[in-house]
């Protein structure tokens, strides 16, 4: 009788139904583009691993990971990612995938941004024309990229905050919605743009400048700093997604036959 009872208890023990799970602290562009909806079922199939995603701006994702609220960090701000590792919060940083940033605005393109030679010319034209430009202003990877580009151009648009330079403090999708409503200009990552459905009269007005390169990195949270991290399964996920199979999977993610992310070598 004792053996039968013990066997029954073992079968229904919570331990026997445990499913491995990791938490990814992620930028919003990967989530909003549908990337995780596409890739998580493949992770589940290949690794028998559940993945929970916390999608926020890059700055907030890094802050969350520093508080040990996650096992993997997947964002797009190389300087901040490097600092995250250097400060001991993360293990080695890997280039995972990339795409680019683009300038979007009203289709009439009165500023003729399509004819500009480079990003600096685009920003100078926007600055001098004082047309409405939307900044996320949320410490996201996109916002930090935008700030670096203004700095590279030697311009300080924040002097005009609340006038023609509007700081939304919102995510990329919400900022694009406002841009569509105001016929305004903004900068966005291409993946969010491709998946964004409320384009209205907005069009891509400038792209294909090396300065607009958008690199995504992936880092395991350091278990020495965060003892609760599921390092075993996080490591399995990392090695799969940077493997040839993982890279092929990233490259196969498309919307309307447009590839959203390109795996890094």
Protein architecture, described:
- Helices cover 40% and strands 24% of the residues.
- The protein is an alpha/beta fold and 265 residues long.
- The chain folds into 2 domains: 2-98 and 214-263, D-Maltodextrin-Binding Protein, domain 2 (3-Layer(aba) Sandwich), CATH 3.40.190; 101-212, Periplasmic binding protein-like II (D-Maltodextrin-Binding Protein, domain 2), CATH 3.40.190.
- β10 and β11 (258-259) form a beta hairpin.
- 38% of the residues are buried.
What is shown here, in short?
About 40% of the residues lie in helices and about 25% in strands. By secondary structure, the protein is an alpha/beta fold.
Set out the fold topology:
Elements: H1 2-11, E1 21-26, H2 28-32, H3 35-47, E2 50-55, H4 58-66, E3 72-75, H5 78-86, E4 90-106, H6 119-129, E5 133-135, H7 141-153, E6 165-167, H8 172-182, E7 185-189, H9 190-195, E8 202-206, E9 213-221, H10 231-241, H11 244-251, E10 254-255, E11 258-259, E12 262-263
Parallel strand pairs: 1-2, 1-3, 5-6, 5-7
Antiparallel strand pairs: 3-9, 4-7, 4-8, 4-9, 4-12, 10-11
Helix pairs in contact: 6-7
């Amino acid at each position: 009788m004792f053996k039968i009872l013990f066997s029954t208890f073992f079968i229904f023990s919570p331990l026997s139904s445990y499913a491995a799970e990791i938490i990814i602290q992620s930028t919003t562009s990967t989530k909003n583009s549908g990337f995780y909806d596409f890739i998580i079922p493949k992770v589940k199939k290949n690794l028998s691993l559940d993945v929970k995603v916390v999608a926020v701006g890059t700055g907030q994702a890094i802050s969350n990971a520093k508080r040990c609220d996650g096992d993997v960090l997947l964002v797009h701000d190389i300087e901040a990612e490097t600092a995250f590792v250097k400060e001991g919060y993360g293990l080695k940083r890997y280039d995972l995938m990339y795409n680019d940033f683009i300038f979007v605005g009203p289709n009439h393109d009165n500023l003729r941004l399509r004819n500009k030679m480079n990003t600096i010319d685009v920003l100078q034209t926007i600055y001098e024309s004082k047309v409405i430009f939307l900044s996320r202003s949320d410490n996201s990877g996109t916002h930090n990229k935008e700030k670096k580009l203004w700095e590279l151009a030697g311009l300080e648009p924040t002097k005009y905050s609340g006038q023609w330079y509007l700081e939304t403090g919102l995510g990329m999708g919400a900022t694009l919605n406002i841009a569509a409503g105001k016929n305004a200009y903004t900068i966005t990552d291409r993946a969010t743009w491709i998946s964004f459905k409320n384009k209205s009269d907005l069009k891509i007005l400038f792209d294909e400048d090396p300065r607009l390169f958008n690199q995504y990195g992936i880092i395991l949270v350091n278990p020495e700093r965060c003892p609760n991290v599921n390092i075993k399964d996080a490591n399995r996920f990392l090695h799969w997604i940077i493997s040839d199979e993982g890279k092929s999977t990233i490259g196969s993610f498309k919307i309307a036959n447009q590839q959203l992310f390109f795996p890094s070598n």
